[in-house]
Structure formats: structure tokens, C-alpha cells
Write a structure and sequence with these properties.
Number of strands: 11
Helix content: 25-40%
Strand order of the largest sheet: 5-2-1-6-7-11-10
Largest sheet: 7 strands, mixed
Distance between the termini: 35 Å
CATH architecture: 3-Layer(aba) Sandwich
Radius of gyration: 17 Å
Number of domains: 1
Strand content: 15-25%
CATH class: Alpha Beta
Number of helices: 6
CATH superfamily: Class I glutamine amidotransferase (GATase) domain
Structural class: alpha/beta
Order of helices and strands: EHEEEEEHEHEEEEHHH
């Protein structure tokens, strides 16, 4: 936890094809943390569209991002295009290593893994990408939010709000997090009990798995290629 008088620098990554809720859900929480500034960084100062086409705009470029206390890495289908993009991976690597806390949402975990930072860590991601994590050296945990030290991993999409609230409690205390939650009136009462693979009807799950099968296969092949290069799943050599 930080001292109340310490001004926090929080940075979120923005890239084409992300899921905007992975960015904006946690942003709603992070921007409400007292005495903090949230930056949103992209490669260029230009409009970036999420995978549904929603236009978003960064506040600065990757190179302009200051030293951070908290790094936030969202995900979404567009993540696949950046798994071997050294500019994005270098940005994640630099700020994850410098930051006190890291928040991963959805397939943002795969980008962090592609940067070589998940080896031996407990992590989660979107249900459709859980099988990718072991190829990146992670210990896959099927939970909505997984905390590994000062790293917070949220599963798919809306779970980023839960992860951000957990993080807010970690950095400013539970009362602050509860006040943010109350302001947001965050008390989900979904109309259907179909939000996880184990609760969705079988035909809905099958339809959903089929719709993402190609992307999942591509993610696994990319992760295997990264593993072959970085040795993420091989045991360390004995000293």
C-alpha cells in the first residue's frame, strides 16, 4: 500500500482491436483512486478502434509514458497481432519491471506472457485463452481474479472491474475501494446465469467455442513459437 500523500502514476496500454471494457472498466476504477493520474498510451497519437469499432484516443505515446506505479494491460482479440511486436512487448517489459503493481485484464495476460514475464506466476485470462497460459510459462488458475504478489490478473472482460477494485484496495485501502464501488453502483445482477463455461448451457458454450476456435489455435501456435525462443516452459538449468 502506498502512503496517502504519494501521487500515483497509473498507465494503461491502448492498441487496435482491444476490448474497450478491458480498458474502460478498470479505468473507471483507477481514475477514481485518490491522488492519482491515469495515462493511456498507444504507439501514435491517433484514434485507435476497439474490436467492435469504437474509437478511442490515447493521452500520450508509448515513449512518453512516465515511470509508473501501476501498469494496466488490457486484452481483446487484437492482442494476437502484437504477441511478437517488440515495441509493445518492450513497453510492457519496461513498465512491468519498474512498476510496483501490475493489472492484467483478459488476454492482456498473453501479452505479458509474450514479454517473458509470466514464468512461474499464477495467472488467469479469458476462458477461451486459458489453454494458452501454460505455453507462456504461467500457472493457469481458473478464477475470476488471481493475485500473485503485487500482480493482479482478471479473467475475461467485465472481471477487469473486479480486479481493479482489488487493486484499489491494495494501494489505497479497502474503504477507498468500497467507496469507488458504491459510486459505480457496482452490484451485478445479470439477467442470465450464463457468464462462465461451467454455467452456460451446453449449446451456447459449444457455439461460443466454435466462434473463437480459429483465434484460440492461432494464439496457441504463437505462444509455442515464443516459448521455443524464450524457453518459458523449460526448467532453469541447475547451478
Amino acid at each position: 500500500m502506498f502512503a496517502p500523500d504519494k501521487h500515483l502514476q497509473i498507465g494503461s496500454l491502448l492498441f487496435p482491436g482491444l476490448d474497450q471494457i478491458d480498458l474502460t472498466g478498470p479505468y473507471e476504477v483507477l481514475a477514481a483512486i485518490p491522488n492519482a493520474t491515469v495515462h493511456v498510451a498507444a504507439k501514435k497519437m491517433e484514434v485507435v478502434k476497439d474490436f467492435h469499432g469504437l474509437p478511442l484516443y490515447p493521452t500520450l505515446t508509448l515513449d512518453e509514458m512516465p515511470k509508473l506505479d501501476i501498469l494496466h494491460v488490457p486484452g481483446g482479440p487484437g492482442q494476437q497481432a502484437f504477441m511478437e511486436d517488440e515495441e509493445i512487448l518492450g513497453f510492457i517489459r519496461k513498465h512491468a519491471e519498474q512498476s510496483e503493481y501490475v493489472l492484467s485484464v483478459c488476454t492482456g495476460a498473453l501479452l505479458i506472457g509474450a514479454a517473458g514475464l509470466l514464468k512461474g506466476r499464477r495467472a488467469t485470462t479469458h476462458w477461451a485463452a486459458m489453454d494458452v497460459l501454460p505455453h507462456l510459462g504461467a500457472i493457469s488458475v481458473n478464477e475470476r481474479v488471481v493475485i500473485d504478489g503485487n500482480w493482479v490478473f482478471a479473467a475475461g472482460v467485465t472481471s477487469g472491474i473486479d480486479g481493479a477494485l482489488q487493486l484499489a484496495a491494495m494501494v489505497r485501502g479497502e474503504d477507498v475501494a468500497k467507496q469507488i464501488q458504491l459510486y459505480m453502483q457496482y452490484h451485478p445482477e445479470p439477467p442470465f446465469d450464463s457468464g462462465t463455461p461451467d454455467r452456460a448451457p451446453a449449446h451456447i458454450l459449444e457455439r461460443s467455442r466454435t466462434s473463437v476456435a480459429k483465434l484460440t489455435a492461432e494464439r496457441i501456435e504463437t505462444a509455442k513459437r515464443i516459448d521455443a525462443r524464450l524457453g518459458l516452459t523449460r526448467p532453469a538449468a541447475a547451478e
